[in-house]
């Protein structure tokens, strides 16, 4: 029986004709007809081969369905459509969002291209290694990675470290021209200084932190980090 450790010799059982007979499991009704409407509201895995099903019955099932009906009407109203057209309207909204994200990336790429020339002019040397470093706000990760790789391709021998910070996180990427200047070790040290972690390959690596306010001070340590890599 289910929960047998909680049962004594005499247990309450629910018998539904010849179809099923189970321990009550909290189903305290005099007859199965009292259960009435049953609505499954969740299903999950408890262990290997065992599923947990939760349902509401009777009056609670009706209340659950009424609440869902109210919610459905609210969603339809917010989307300015009928309940039947909600899926189509959501699909339409999704496509509109994809277009806007694509447009934002295009604008960011143009903006970053302008900033890349500035970063090249501000590049500094550690020994014979050219180092480029920059920090921007809310730049798309894909755009940030592309910028790091394009800047690296302009260098004969050097390393590029770029960061994008938002309100609650920071993303850092590094791109290197030589194995003797491993990007993965560079990004690991910088992200750790910023309270995060990262890794990757010698030529490209990335990492993140949940402390965006620490990114600026971590990037300030880049000359020291590069000096120790050589």
Automatic annotation (TrEMBL):
One of its GO terms (molecular function) is alanine-tRNA ligase activity. The lineage of its organism: unclassified sequences, metagenomes, ecological metagenomes. It comes from marine sediment metagenome. GO terms for biological process: alanyl-tRNA aminoacylation. GO terms for cellular component: cytosol. This is Alanine--tRNA ligase. It is an enzyme of class 6 (ligase). Keywords: Aminoacyl-tRNA synthetase, ATP-binding, Ligase, Nucleotide-binding, Protein biosynthesis, RNA-binding, tRNA-binding. Pfam families: DHHA1, tRNA_SAD. PANTHER family: ALANINE--TRNA LIGASE, CYTOPLASMIC, ALANYL-TRNA SYNTHETASE. InterPro entries: Ala-tRNA-synth_IIc_core, Ala-tRNA_ligase, DHHA1_dom, Thr/Ala-tRNA-synth_IIc_edit, tRNA_SAD. Belongs to the class-II aminoacyl-tRNA synthetase family. Residues 1-67 form the Alanyl-transfer RNA synthetases family profile domain.
